[in-house]
Design brief:
The protein is mainly α. It has two helices and no strands. Helix 1 runs antiparallel to helix 2. It is rod-shaped and about 60 Å long. The chain starts with 5 loop residues before the first helix and ends in a 5-residue tail after the last helix. The relative contact order is 0.19.
Amino acid sequence: MEVPSEDEVEALNAMRAIKERVRDLKTRLSEISSSNRDVGKSEALALEQKMEKLKAEWNEWEGKRKKAAKERMILLGHEE
């Protein structure tokens, strides 16, 4: 039995990738808000929508990670 399990590693890697994408989006949003241009408002709205999608994707991977961790703990005999 590997610790963390393959499923946990997959979820953690996906979550790291999401976190990196969110950082990039936040940086871009910050640049847009500091520029005070009307053109940036539509881009900012699109970026915020992407962030909402990433949040939903994060929550999905978090659920998968927790499920994999629970399965590992059951296999190791630490939980029922």
